[in-house]
């Protein structure tokens, strides 16, 4: 409510605001030009309404009245004074203290002819009093004054179809060098502002096309384009009009449409970045009203839509009000980027209020919205940078954590857009399964056992990942499951083996390597008893699959997986029957028959039909095979000395 009171107070006070009283003297002190870049000729001029007169004719006729030139373009002033003339001739006699070359800067008057000492020195557009027609042109202009002590300046002009229908600044005088330098500086500044907005818009569009789930970059890109287009045609230098001859009507149409579309686009951006802080119905209403004004601009002339522009100021201020409420809610809820964006919006709002008051002639000055928009662009860029930084940190963290669960090629394919379900092979394939476990691990009472166990499992994992190639998805083996002191391993699926050996031979050599790693790690613990491990090996069809619902965790099913655990469990019966000669590799008969002759050596037959020889879940098996591996030797003084 206080915001609305202030806004209404400002708008109510606009008609009561006025400009300082015009000066009476036509004498210009040249010394002031040493300190001031431009001096406004805002004194009273002789005015002859509804007539275009030459200098010679003016000497014979008395002026209709005296008034400041800029008031002729102030339609509110003309209405109060009941002046209906659209054409007039103005005369101003200028005296200087010391002759030197000077320059007049003429604001954006629709059309004029300028005479100095009876000589035509400048013109713009065309005018016809008889036909009551004007062909207007945009942009301000500059005219050189030769070095004289006095100048008789005569301006034939019209106020028909003027821009925002809010008046113009006075004609100013200054030194050519300083004025041209100032003009060039403004030109560079405007090019920089428009260029910055264009680059930002392109960047935001590219960002949106790569991440279409978030529409805030698209809305911000459109906002930058609208403000940039308005600045390009409305700036004092009007550099865009020098490149594209849009003409009077279309240049104003672009300016107005850009102005009407900027508020709803900015609110849409704010609604995206701060969800549920702006009523959705209000945003839709604002889009509807802005579209209505745009249609009015497109299908009518400047005389129709120009005087009605003040109505949209209320809509703009209403958008400012809801935008402030949105920022307040975002700050209260501590939304990401609320503090940074609030700073940019406050600067932009200040520029918007300034421009509204400036167009209402409460004070002189240049439009600031385009420049204050740069502050918003910087703030929005800071938010994007902050989000990028957080996103990159999040991605790095997620990759680091996921790498503990999945293989590198899975992360790479996901980062390239592949769905999780396509990163690992599915379907049914034949493979060899190894089950590794420490025998009677619960009886090992040593405080260092857990540390050495972790080291052993880490070394086994390194062995499994040896020769891992993400391109061909090949590796020594794949760890299917892991528990406290053992793991389930598959060979040949889902990863291809990196050697020319058969997958059964490769699996047997891997089993020997596991037993070796176990022995070396346990011997370094220097335990008081010999320690043993067991490896069960089976072969069969395995099915790789992802669940149809729930957590999409890759899984491998197959009878060979369960059998491998039961074959490993046969290590204890083997040790009980044949004595504790070493760690045990217990393999399926089919695995034995698939082994090369070289690797079959040393295996002993296990009779599955004998008492105590039956293998769980494999009652039809007639025989199996086992082989002893060196145990982890117990600690002794002799071992210590030999070491």
What does this structure look like?
The strands form 4 sheets. Strands 14, 15, 16, 17, 18, 19, 20 and 21 form an 8-stranded mixed sheet that branches. The protein has 21 helices and 21 strands. β9 (126-128) and β10 form a beta hairpin. 47% of the residues lie in helices and 19% in strands. By secondary structure, the protein is α+β, with helices and mostly antiparallel strands. α12 runs antiparallel to α13 and α15 (449-464) packs antiparallel against α16. The protein is rod-shaped.
Q: Tell me about the largest β-sheet.
A: 8 strands, mixed
Beta fraction: 15-25%
Number of strands: 21
Structural class assignment: alpha+beta
Mean pLDDT: 83
Please count the helical segments: 21
Terminal-residue CA separation: 88 Å
Low-confidence stretches: 1-24, 637-643
Helix content: 40-55%
**Outline, from the CA principal axes?**
rod-shaped
Radius of gyration: 44 Å
Labels describing this entry:
disordered N terminus, disordered C terminus, 8-stranded mixed sheet, alpha+beta, 7-stranded mixed sheet, 643 residues, 19% strand
What does this entry show, briefly?
The chain is of the alpha+beta class and 643 residues long.
